[in-house]
Amino acid sequence: MARRRGEWPADPEPLPAPVIDNHTHLESIPEVLDDGVPDPGVAAQLERAAAVGVAAAVQIGCDLDSAEVSVRWAQEHPRLVAGVAIHPNEAVLHAGVREIAPDGLEPAPLPRHTASLDDAIARIAELARGERVRTVGETGLDFFRAGEEGRAVQRESFRAHIALAKELGLPMQIHDRDAHADVLDVLSRDGAPEVTVFHCFSGDAEMAAECARRGYYLSFAGPVTFASADAVRDAAAVVPATQLLVETDAPYLTPAPHRGAPNAPYLLPMTVRRLAEVRGDDLAWLCERLHANATSIYGPW
User: Among 93, 151, 236, 247, which has the minimal tally of Cβ within 10 Å of its Cβ?
Assistant: First the structure.
C-alpha cells in the first residue's frame, strides 16, 4: 500500500526557461492522496506544470495496467510521451517468487500475477511499438526486498528489456535500488542500448563518473534536495551537463521542504533550482540544457 500524503504544496516560482520531467507516474497520484485531497486529473496537472515552466513529461507505466494507461494518455495529451516496462519488483510477482522483507524477517507470501513473466514482457513489447512510446522503462534491479531467487528473476527481466530496447532502437530507463554494481555488470555483459538513462540516480560521485564515462544519462529527482543526500548532490556535481536530466518520479520523492506531501510535475522547478545551486550553473542556461537533452533522447513531443 502506498503511504498517504497531505495537501498539495503551493506552486513554486516559474522557471526562466522550460524543462521536461524525465519520469513521472501520474496514474499513481490517487493512490497516495489523503481522503478529501482532490486529484485534479491529468490535463489539469499538465496545465499546472506548464504554468511554472515544466513543458512536458515522460509518463512511465511499469506494470501491465499502468503501461496500458500510459500509452493511452500519451495519445490523448500532447505534453506526454510514454515509457513502458515491467518493474523489477513486478517481475518477481509475475514469476511467483516470495520477496524478503528488508529487516530480514520471514517474508509473507505475495500474490502471483496471472500473466507469466514471459507473457508480461511480450505485452510490453507490443505496447512499446506505439508511436507515442519513446522509452523502455523503468527496468533494472531492485535488491531492497528481493532474495536470491527474486534477484535472478530480476536479472532475467532486465536482460529481456535491454534486448527489447535495442531491437526497437528505443532509449532505456533504469531503476537501480541497492544494486549499483550488479546493474553496471549486466549492462557490461549484455551491452547497453545506445541511449541509457539512470532514472532517479542514487549512486555516489564515483558511480556517476563511471556512468558518464560509459555515455549514460543520469536523471536526478527530489532526493537532491534532501538534507541527508550529500552523496547524491556530489554525484550531480560531476555529471557532464550534456548527460544530465531531471525528473519528479511523482507522486513520490517530493522535494524539500514538502516531503510528505504529494508530488507532481509542477513541483519540478524546486529540484531544478537545487541542481543549479549544487553544480554552480546559471539557472536559465541549465534549463535550456536539460530541455535539449530530453528532446535529443525522446524526440519532439
Answer: 151
69 domain-assigned: yes
Alpha helices in the chain (DSSP H): 29-32, 42-51, 64-76, 88-94, 117-127, 148-168, 180-190, 205-213, 230-238, 268-279, 283-298
Residue 14 lies in a domain: no
Domain span at 289: 19-298
Could you tell me the CATH number of the domain that includes residue 70? 3.20.20.140
Dihedral sign from CA coordinates of 286, 291, 294, 297:
negative
CB 69 within 8 A of CB 147: no
Please tell me whether the peptide bond between 16 and the residue prior to it is cis, using omega within 30 degrees of 0.
no
Residue 120, all three cell numbers: 508480461
Among 20-24, 67-71, 103-107, 205-209, whose mean pLDDT is lowest? 103-107
Find all residues with CB under 8 Å of 1, minimum gap 6, and list them.
none
The values of phi and psi at residue 250, to 5°, are -60, 145
Within-domain flag for 4 = no
Question: Does residue 78 lie within any of the structural domains?
Answer: yes
Q: Give me Rg for the CA atoms of the chain.
A: 18
For residue range 120-138, list pLDDT tens digits in order: 999 999 999 999 999 999 9
